[in-house]
């Protein structure tokens, strides 16, 4: 099996992405998609928030972590839209990343278990948000 072989998925909320074929996709509670390899340190989780208020509450929780010096925040792009990237270091040495995207009509959190993984980087780079096509990012 070639390392370049890939699977693809699209969530009902309009997130499309590709992933290595040795990875798996799981759906939890209808609004969470997890792409994972047989290793708990290699996952990408796509979560859709029901409304802007719950999405903002999650960002505010992270802002508290930033104030405590446990997390860094920077501007990023994901799926063709502007995003905030919040990164935190785990005791294992892995850096987790949390991308927050507001399309104007939908609110997403895309989290990674290991930002340094080349496989995770490829998945993140492949993300496409349906709303990006309509320029709905405020």
Looking at this protein, list some descriptive labels.
138 residues, alpha+beta, seven-stranded antiparallel sheet, three-stranded antiparallel sheet, 2 helices, 10 strands
In short:
The protein has two helices and ten strands; from the N terminus they run βββββαββββαβ. It has 138 residues and is an alpha+beta fold. The termini are far apart.
Question: Explain this structure to me?
Answer:
The model has no long low-confidence stretch (mean pLDDT 80). The radius of gyration is 15 Å and the shape is globular. The N and C termini lie far apart (42 Å). It has 138 residues and is of the alpha+beta class. Helices cover 18% and strands 48% of the residues. The strands form 2 sheets. Strands 3-4-5-9-8-7-6 form a 7-stranded antiparallel β-sheet, with helices on both faces.
Strand order of the largest sheet: 3-4-5-9-8-7-6
Low-confidence stretches: none
Measured distance between first and last alpha carbons: 42 Å
Query: How many strands?
Result: 10
Q: What coarse outline follows from CA principal-axis ratios?
A: globular
Radius of gyration of CA atoms, rounded to a whole number: 15 Å
Q: Order of helices and strands, N to C? A: EEEEEHEEEEHE
Helicity range: 10-25%
Average pLDDT confidence is 80
- Largest sheet properties: 7 strands, antiparallel
